[in-house]
């Protein structure tokens, strides 16, 4: 039986805002709360002062269920902030029937993985390919999509894919699946202290974040949700499950 869920992908940048360089998880929770997704895939989720941001967000959002990947990546989100371990998570109001992690081809110092979360009627595949080597990024994206194709029922790929719409990984996905890849920015570079003082944009943005229906699913009403709580905007869409292949794409 067909089901419609609202899903979101959001690179939270360890909850460091692009407008003030301050870490504020409440602002991230506000962005998610206003869209009321049934499930949200998060990237750059850090462990801060011994507490995982995904667990804290779940509490702030009223007790959502959580599944998380390893916190093996490290990245400096900006001046005045320590380098923290981070990774990917999925928060959901649906029942989690199971979840698993799948290693991807990775650079030795920057391991990446796919987090699969099985909900009733829909498997979510959350991923955050490297921003480094382009060939590795293309391989990671293709591997993640292949894993989603193997799901026994409807599946969707969510994440900051670190690729613009005209890049090979997105063009390859677009040949197989019907999804929104409009060249509308979802990421902006972090401003310098001088940029903040002068209130100016440090540079043009890029589309990096996507919701891709892979198996027996159809995505509609894709929207980009502007926010200054992160250097990325959130992306939200409706996903209809149990769509026959000749209807979905």
From TrEMBL:
Gene3D superfamilies in UniProt: Endonuclease/exonuclease/phosphatase
Superkingdom to which the source organism belongs: Bacteria
One BP annotation, GO: GPI anchor biosynthetic process
GO cellular component: membrane
Domain Endonuclease/exonuclease/phosphatase intervals: 8-232
Coiled coil: none
Molecular function GO labels: catalytic activity
PANTHER family membership: CALCOFLUOR WHITE HYPERSENSITIVE PROTEIN PRECURSOR (PTHR14859), ENDONUCLEASE_EXONUCLEASE_PHOSPHATASE DOMAIN-CONTAINING PROTEIN (PTHR14859:SF15)
Protein name, per record: Endonuclease/exonuclease/phosphatase domain-containing protein
Native species: Mangrovactinospora gilvigrisea
Source taxonomy: Bacteria, Bacillati, Actinomycetota, Actinomycetes, Kitasatosporales
